[in-house]
Write a structure and sequence with these properties.
Blueprint lengths: L8 E4 L12 H15 L4 H15 L2 H9 L3 H7 L14 H8 L5 E5 L4 H11 L7 E3 L14 H11 L7 E5 L2 H9 L3 E5 L12 E3 L5 H4 L8
Parallel strand pairs: 1-2, 1-4, 2-3, 4-5, 5-6
Helix pairs in contact: 1-2, 2-3
Length: 224
C-alpha cells in the first residue's frame, strides 16, 4: 500500500446490503438451500431445522454441511449460489455507483460470506465492481474456511486489506451478529436494518439502506 493511499478502509457487505433484501435473492437462495438438504434425503421439517441450526451455529449452512455431511462446498456453490438468475433480480444501480464513487479519503473493500463467484456476479450486476479495491470472501477451496461472524475472519480481512489498526476500519452489513463482532473488535459499524424489526441496537449507527451512509458518516463525502 503506497503512502499516498488513504489509510482508512470501509468494508462493505454485499448480499442484502448493497441491494435490499426485498429483491427476492434472499428468498430464492433459501429455497435452493432447502432443496439441497432435501436432495440429501432430509424430510422437510428436518431440512428446515438443520438449515437454521447450521446457519446459527456456523454462520453459513454450508459450513455445517461440510463439517457434518462431507459436502463439497464448490459443488454446493455451483448448485445454490451460482444457480440464482441474478439478471432476474438485479440491474445496474446508478445511485449506488454514484454514492460509492463520490467517497473521499477512504479505501473501499467488499467483505462477503459468499464465495468469490457469487460476490463478483453481484458486483458486476449492480455495475459497481470497479469501485472496490479488493474483495474478501469465504474461500471454499480452503479446508475449514472462515466466515462472518468468526473473529478470525475479520483479522484475515484486515490483513488482506493491509490495515492493522481497527480504529481505521469501517463496516456496513445487514447482519446484527456480524455488526456485533466488528464493534467488538473496535471497528465503526453501521447496521442496515431495511424494513426488518430489530431488537436492540447493533453497531454505532442504524440505517434503512446502504445509500443512507452519507447521513451517518458524512465525512466520507466531504470535499477535500
Amino acid at each position: 500500500m503506497s503512502s499516498s493511499q488513504p489509510q482508512r478502509v470501509f468494508f462493505f457487505d454485499i448480499d442484502n446490503c448493497l441491494y435490499p433484501k426485498s429483491t427476492g435473492i434472499f428468498k430464492d437462495m433459501g429455497k435452493r438451500i432447502h432443496a439441497y438438504f432435501k436432495r440429501m434425503g432430509f424430510p422437510d421439517e428436518e431440512a428446515t431445522e438443520l438449515h437454521h441450526r447450521y446457519y446459527t451455529e456456523y454462520g453459513l449452512a454450508i459450513r455445517g454441511l461440510v463439517k457434518h455431511h462431507d459436502v463439497d462446498p464448490l459443488a454446493y456453490d455451483k448448485e445454490v449460489d451460482q444457480g440464482i438468475p441474478l439478471q432476474d433480480y438485479l440491474k445496474k444501480d446508478d445511485d449506488l455507483r454514484a454514492m460509492l464513487s463520490s467517497m473521499k479519503d477512504v479505501r473501499k473493500w467488499a467483505f462477503t460470506n459468499a464465495y468469490k463467484v457469487h460476490g463478483n456476479r453481484v458486483l458486476e450486476a449492480l455495475g459497481v465492481a470497479d469501485q472496490f479495491e479488493g474483495m474478501s470472501f469465504c474461500d471454499y477451496e480452503v479446508k475449514d474456511f472462515k466466515c462472518k461472524p468468526q473473529e478470525e475472519f475479520y483479522h484475515i480481512v484486515m490483513k488482506a486489506a493491509g490495515v492493522t489498526d481497527p480504529s481505521l476500519c469501517y463496516f456496513v452489513d445487514d447482519s446484527a451478529v456480524n455488526i456485533d463482532m466488528a464493534k467488538k473488535l473496535g471497528w465503526t459499524a453501521v447496521h442496515v436494518v431495511g424494513d426488518d424489526i430489530v431488537e436492540g441496537k447493533h453497531g454505532d449507527f442504524q440505517i434503512h439502506s446502504v445509500k443512507d451512509l452519507p447521513s451517518v458518516l458524512p465525512q466520507f463525502w466531504e470535499k477535500n
